[in-house]
Amino acid sequence: MSRSLLRENAYRWIRDAIVDGTLAPGERLNDAELAEWLGVSRTPVREALTRLEEMGLVKTKPGRYTMVSPLDAHAARAAQTVTAAMHELAVREAVPRLSADDIEAMRAANGRFAAALQADDVDAAIAADDEFHGVAVVASANPALRTVLEQFTPVLRRLERLRFSSLSGRSSVALHERIIALCEAHDVEGAATAARENWMSLDEAFELGTAGDSPA
Q1: Residues in CB range of 110: below 8 A, 6 or more apart
Q2: How far apart are CA 54 and CA 74, in angstroms?
């Protein structure tokens, strides 16, 4: 396996473990232990931790600790604003290009999303939500969008998990249906606004789990 692939895999494994709570907020991270857990050398783990620190998912204080960042309201709200704007742009650019198959893919993803919420399957809900929004991101044909979303979406993922594990998350099904209807009607501005509002609806999750405290 190439060094670049090892580095990317280590990053994704640790990122996903932070997002799904396997590595909990405030948990201390040891690169040697992580390397043993993942079956890789310490180098890709250290590179992954540096990247995750830049994203705000890991905090370090040289000589003292490396830890999973607590849920921070300020950082999460900044990520929410940027992510909402990127999805608004994706839909605005995608609507003129969406095919009937794209609309059907969005509808099918939302159906899986609704079923996952009903079954209290948060992982499946996250996957279906990604598929739903991914249709417009791909159709927009804007690679810069993907780069920005890759940077900021993981910061929000922990909030999405909180929201989708609560009853409030079920309102997202109707928000998705509205986006689909507006896309199908070729209402560019309406669909783009609805996409932004969908991501701003994560406000409810801030009350469920964010905190601005930082470790000493």
Answers
A1: 128, 132, 173, 176, 177, 180
A2: 15
